[in-house]
Write a structure and sequence with these properties.
The complex is a heterodimer of chains A (284) and B (226).
Chain A (H helix, E strand, L loop, with lengths): L1 H12 L2 H35 L5 E5 L5 H13 L3 E7 L1 H11 L5 H4 L9 E6 L7 H12 L3 E6 L1 H43 L1 H9 L4 H37 L7 H29 L1
Antiparallel strand pairs in A: 1-3, 1-4, 2-3
Chain B lengths: L1 E10 L3 E11 L4 E5 L6 H8 L7 E6 L2 E2 L8 H5 L2 E5 L10 H10 L5 H14 L15 H13 L5 E5 L7 H16 L3 E5 L3 H6 L3 E6 L2 E7 L6
Parallel strand pairs in B: 3-8, 3-9, 6-7, 7-8
Antiparallel strand pairs in B: 1-2, 1-4, 4-5, 9-10
Classes of the chains: A alpha+beta (284), B alpha/beta (226).
């Protein structure tokens, strides 16, 4: 082991420019990747916060008849996604509004008509908060004669869901591309190092060194390159987080997971890159 | 100890290096391998330390057969074979001691034993006073002695020498031959490829002459045999 570490150090001490180039590439690639991951993590957080606030409001036209109101109630009851609902008349709505605006009674002094519509406040069963059944119910309600408008946060959530799916797709494509690029960079760097020590490798093979003995120092070099790249990416990401937090305090940063993950992932990519290169060299 | 059974070796572009070679070498034997450049001497040596595999036929060395040895098992064989080359193949960033020690380090020998064995072999090769010199500070003969010391330090059963005197002066040649003979006297089989007819004439060892990949002579030196 002492020999392996000594040789790894010697290999690392050589061609510093090459190592710097590899570490910089890994650091910048992992930084870009982690930015997208951080964005996705924050999107998930927003979506989670929205789930419990998934009530629906069905605003009614002023001229709605009793029959139409009854039809709406029947639809709400038969839909299966409604946990409970409550009818809020125009008068009740005004009373509630007045009590909310109690500090400014002058607002209502000049008001000779009630501008607020009657509505149904609908509470949705939790499992249906994202479902197609909910969308169907909203569409059916909108088509009914006495309904003026249907508002619920599902629309926003639906949009967020689409953004989230897009973000995951971008994360995946970007992640795979950058990982392959990083493996390629490390394998080339280590390839250069192996090539520069080809005489030594040839003699090692001649005198009976095992392949794993020959590989180890180069694998350690790849691992260190990757881990250092991951460390610098984590530092950059933390600096970015501090800048963003100064403007948006609610931003989430799972520090230990991201920093540990970046270093470990960088090390793994470095290891893979050098393994590809050394195996290729030993086979020839 | 070494056996070649109907060995045929063809490189790329149908270049035939060896044709139907049958050969046997016993334990403790010293064999000269002669022939013009391109006759197949180096290929034959490479087949013995299994750096190459025959296109057809079988090579058996110290119980390992070319037909079933896996690349992961090669190191077992290589640890019992010493190889020296015309161009020495020394590491220029290591001194004599480290060049010799290298052969033991890669096989995981403890540092204490390495030091003892390396000093012992450097003394045998009369290089102990130059143990801290780098290859570029040594003459050709001395560099070859370091290469021999590196091969000797693992006490191999077989020593393969590919034109070891090709790059050194007559004095150096005698010294190298003297060392190889000493190694042979201690029980190691030696196969030495050479262009030097003077050496072949001088020493009473078996001579194998190759020409265009075929064995043309296999026996003691006789006038007109090489």
């Amino acid at each position: 082991m002492a020999y392996t570490l000594r040789e790894a150090y010697k290999t690392f001490a050589k061609r510093r420019g090459t190592h710097v180039a590899a570490i910089t590439t890994i650091a910048s690639s992992l930084f870009v990747l982690s930015l997208f991951a951080l964005g996705t993590i924050n999107l998930v957080k927003i979506m989670r916060e929205l789930y419990p606030k998934m009530d629906m409001t069905v605003f009614l036209k002023d001229d709605i008849g009793l029959k139409e109101r009854r039809e709406i109630e029947e639809l709400l009851e038969s839909s299966g996604v409604v946990e409970q609902y409550q009818y809020i008349s125009k008068e009740t709505a005004l009373q509630e509004f007045k009590s909310e605006m109690a500090e400014s009674p002058e607002l209502f002094e000049a008001l000779d008509i009630n501008p607020l519509p009657a509505s149904f406040q609908v509470q949705i069963h939790t499992p249906y908060q994202q479902s197609d059944d909910l969308l169907k119910l909203a569409s059916e309600l909108e088509r009914m004669g006495g309904v003026d408008d249907v508002r619920y946060r599902g629309r926003l959530l639906e949009r967020l869901q689409k953004i989230f799916s897009g973000a995951v797709l971008i994360d995946t494509i970007l992640g795979i591309s950058l990982c392959l690029a990083m493996i390629y960079v490390v394998s080339n760097t280590v390839g250069l190092l192996v090539y520069s020590r080809r005489n030594e490798v040839e003699i090692m093979k001649l005198v009976g060194a095992t392949d794993s003995f020959i590989k180890k120092p180069f694998l350690i070099v790849g691992l260190i390159q990757g881990a250092l790249g991951g460390t610098f990416a984590a530092l950059l990401l933390y600096a970015f987080y501090l800048i963003v937090r100064a403007r948006v305090s609610a931003v989430v940063f799972p520090g230990t997971m991201l920093i540990g993950g970046l270093i470990a992932f960088g090390a793994l990519l470095g290891l893979l890159g050098s393994l590809v290169s050394v195996r290729k060299f030993l086979k020839t | 100890m070494i056996e070649l059974r109907n060995v045929h070796k063809i490189y790329e572009k149908s270049w035939i290096a060896l044709r139907h070679v049958d050969l046997q070498m016993s334990k403790g034997e010293f064999v000269f391998l002669v022939g013009p450049t391109g006759a197949g001497k180096t290929t034959l040596l490479k087949l013995i330390f299994m750096d190459e595999k025959p296109t057809s036929g079988e090579v058996i060395v110290l119980g390992h057969s070319s037909t079933d040895i896996k690349s992961k098992q090669l190191h077992h064989l290589r640890r019992k074979i010493g190889v020296i080359f015309q161009d020495f193949k020394l590491l220029n960033d290591r001194d004599c001691f480290d060049n010799v020690a290298f052969a033991l380090e890669v096989t995981g020998t403890p540092r204490k034993i390495i030091k003892k064995k390396v000093l012992q072999v450097l003394t045998q090769t009369k290089l102990s006073h130059k143990r801290n010199c780098y290859p570029f500070q040594l003459s050709g003969g001395e560099q070859q002695k370091v290469a021999i010391a590196r091969a000797m330090v693992r006490e191999p059963s077989i020593l393969l020498a590919d034109e070891p005197t090709g790059n050194i002066d007559p004095n150096g040649t005698e010294e190298v031959l003297g060392l190889l003979r000493n190694i042979n006297a201690s029980g190691t089989s030696v196969v030495m490829a050479t262009h030097s007819t003077a050496l072949v004439r001088k020493y009473p060892y078996r001579v194998i002459r190759l020409d265009c990949g075929e064995i043309k002579h296999n026996g003691l030196y006789a006038e007109g045999s090489i």
